[in-house]
C-alpha cells in the first residue's frame, strides 16, 4: 500500500493564535479531511496529511496565515541525518532546480546555507541548478530552539515546494494603499483572517453592525458574499469631514465605503449601509444573515455611542458589557442556523478569565484567539456558531467578572 504523503505547512511569523484555527476552518468549509501532527504556537511549522493531493492548492488559495507548503521527502532531527538521507522511493526528477533554506529561531548566513546544500550526499535530481527561473524549487526548513545563535536545529525538513499561499491580497488591499480609511480601519491581514474564520462562502449575506469605514466587508466581497452594514457615525459611513490620511485635509467625494468597493471592483457585492444606533436596531427580528462580522468600538480611539432620549448622540451609558451582550442577542435573533458571529472583544489581561466572556444559549463558542496589544491589554477574536433558535427567555449573559472589559477604557488609560 502506498504511504500517504506528508506536507509541511510553513506559517507566517505573526498572529500565532490565529494560524491553526484559520487552516482548520478552510478545511471545514471545503470538506477537506486533514490529519495534523503535534503543533505549537511557538514555531511556524505544521506537518499535515490530506485525503486528496488536490486539497493543497485549495488551502493555499484561501489561507493568508500560510506562507507556503512543501511536500516532505525527508523529516529528521539534524543536518547530518539530512545529508545522509537516501530518499528511498523518490523517482529522480528532470529539469532545473533551486534549493532554498528557511530557518526559524536562528539566522543562517548565506555561506553556511551553501555549505549545507553541498554536503547533501544524494539528491534525486538530474537537471542543473537555476537560481533565477528553476523548473522546481526545493526547501530545507530548519527549526531551532528559541533565539539560538549557534548550534544545530532539532527539526529538519526537505522537499519540493507545492505552492505559495494567496498572501498577495494583504498587499493588494493594504490600508496604506486604500482610497478611504479612518482611525480604526482594520488591518488587511486580520480582515481576511476574520472572513476565513467566519467561513464566508460565495452567495452568503454578511452584516457588520459597527461598519465604520467598511474594512471588514471588503474580504467578504472578495470571497463572493453580499455585504451591508450600519453605524451610528454617519460621517464615517459617508466620508465626511477631516481626512485621517497624511497630507490630505478633507475627504474627497469618492472617498467613502462605496468608493473603496468601486476602486477594488467589488461594488456588485455591496448592498449599502444605513446610520443607526445599535442599541435601538432597525432590522426586523428574524434569521437573515449567514455571517455577522464586526469590530465594535472599545471607547479608546472611537467612543461607544448611543442615541439619548432627545435624539442627541451622547457618549455615556453604553458600557462595553452592555454593548457586547446586545451584540450576542442580536446575533442569536438575526443569524440563520449554522451562521457565525465573529467579533473582537477587548480585555484587561490580568483580569481575564473564560467565565468573563459573553454567552448566549443559542450561540456556541468555536474559537477564542488572543492578539496582545500591550502589557496590560489585549483583544480576543471570538467565533460563535448559532446552534439553535432563540427560545422564550433566552438572552445573553456573563457569569464571571465584568471588569476585564467593563472597565477596559479606564484601565487602558491608567498609566499605573
Describe this structure in words.
- The chain is α/β, with parallel strands linked by helices.
- It has 12 helices and 17 strands.
- It has helices at residues 16-29, 55-62, 79-83, 110-119, 168-172, 188-197, 217-222, 234-238, 257-263, 320-334, 403-406, 408-412; strands spanning 7-11, 34-36, 45-50, 66-71, 74-76, 97-104, 136-143, 155-164, 205-208, 226-231, 270-275, 289-294, 306-307, 313-314, 335-348, 363-372, 377-386.
- Strands 1, 2, 3, 4, 5, 6, 7 and 8 form an 8-stranded mixed sheet that branches. A 7-stranded mixed sheet has the order 11-10-9-12-15-17-16.
- The chain is elongated, with a radius of gyration of 24 Å.
- The model has no long low-confidence stretch (mean pLDDT 89).
Characterize this entry briefly:
Helix content is 23%, strand content 26%. The protein has 416 residues and is of the alpha/beta class. The strands form three sheets. Strands 1, 2, 3, 4, 5, 6, 7 and 8 form an eight-stranded mixed sheet that branches. A seven-stranded mixed sheet has the order 11-10-9-12-15-17-16. It has a two-stranded antiparallel ribbon with strand order 13-14.
CA radius of gyration? 24 Å
Shape: elongated
End-to-end gap: 64 Å
> Can you count the helices?
12
Tell me the layout of helices and strands.
Elements: E1 7-11, H1 16-29, E2 34-36, E3 45-50, H2 55-62, E4 66-71, E5 74-76, H3 79-83, E6 97-104, H4 110-119, E7 136-143, E8 155-164, H5 168-172, H6 188-197, E9 205-208, H7 217-222, E10 226-231, H8 234-238, H9 257-263, E11 270-275, E12 289-294, E13 306-307, E14 313-314, H10 320-334, E15 335-348, E16 363-372, E17 377-386, H11 403-406, H12 408-412
Amino acid at each position: 500500500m502506498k504511504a500517504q504523503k506528508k506536507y509541511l505547512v510553513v506559517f507566517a511569523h505573526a498572529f500565532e493564535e490565529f494560524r491553526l484555527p484559520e487552516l482548520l476552518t478552510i478545511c471545514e468549509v471545503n470538506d477537506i479531511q486533514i490529519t495534523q501532527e503535534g503543533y505549537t504556537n511557538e514555531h511556524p511549522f505544521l506537518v499535515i496529511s490530506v485525503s486528496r493531493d488536490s486539497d493543497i492548492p485549495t488551502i493555499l488559495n484561501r489561507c493568508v496565515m500560510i506562507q507556503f507548503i512543501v511536500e516532505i521527502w525527508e523529516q529528521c532531527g539534524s543536518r547530518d541525518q539530512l545529508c545522509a538521507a537516501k530518499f528511498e522511493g523518490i523517482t529522480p526528477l528532470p529539469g532545473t532546480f533551486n534549493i532554498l533554506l528557511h530557518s526559524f529561531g536562528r539566522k543562517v548566513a548565506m555561506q553556511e546555507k551553501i555549505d549545507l546544500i553541498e554536503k547533501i550526499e544524494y539528491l534525486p535530481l538530474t537537471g542543473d541548478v537555476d537560481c533565477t527561473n528553476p523548473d522546481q524549487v526545493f526547501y530545507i526548513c530548519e527549526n531551532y530552539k528559541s533565539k539560538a545563535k549557534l548550534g544545530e536545529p532539532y527539526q529538519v525538513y526537505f522537499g519540493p515546494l507545492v505552492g505559495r499561499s494567496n498572501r498577495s491580497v494583504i498587499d493588494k488591499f493594504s490600508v496604506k494603499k486604500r482610497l478611504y480609511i479612518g482611525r480604526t480601519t482594520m488591518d488587511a491581514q486580520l480582515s481576511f483572517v476574520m472572513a476565513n474564520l467566519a467561513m464566508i462562502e460565495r452567495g452568503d449575506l454578511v452584516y457588520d453592525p459597527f461598519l465604520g469605514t467598511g474594512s471588514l466587508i471588503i474580504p467578504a466581497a472578495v470571497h463572493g458574499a453580499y455585504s451591508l452594514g450600519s453605524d451610528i457615525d454617519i460621517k464615517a459611513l459617508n466620508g465626511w469631514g477631516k481626512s485621517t490620511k497624511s497630507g490630505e485635509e478633507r475627504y474627497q467625494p469618492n472617498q467613502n465605503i462605496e468608493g473603496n468597493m468601486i476602486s477594488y471592483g467589488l461594488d456588485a457585492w455591496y448592498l449599502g449601509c444605513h446610520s443607526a444606533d445599535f442599541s435601538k436596531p432597525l432590522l426586523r427580528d428574524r434569521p437573515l444573515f449567514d455571517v455577522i462580522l464586526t469590530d465594535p468600538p472599545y471607547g479608546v480611539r472611537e467612543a461607544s455611542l448611543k442615541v439619548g432620549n432627545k435624539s442627541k448622540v451622547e457618549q455615556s451609558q453604553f458600557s462595553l458589557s452592555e454593548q457586547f451582550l446586545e451584540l450576542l442577542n442580536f446575533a442569536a435573533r438575526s443569524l440563520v442556523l449554522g451562521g457565525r458571529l465573529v467579533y473582537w472583544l477587548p480585555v484587561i489581561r490580568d483580569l481575564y478569565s473564560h467565565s468573563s466572556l459573553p454567552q448566549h444559549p443559542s450561540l456556541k463558542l468555536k474559537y477564542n484567539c488572543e492578539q496582545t496589544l500591550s502589557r496590560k491589554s489585549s483583544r480576543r477574536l471570538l467565533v460563535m456558531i448559532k446552534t439553535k433558535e432563540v427560545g422564550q427567555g433566552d438572552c445573553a449573559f456573563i457569569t464571571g467578572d465584568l471588569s476585564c472589559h467593563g472597565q477596559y477604557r479606564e484601565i487602558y488609560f491608567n498609566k499605573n
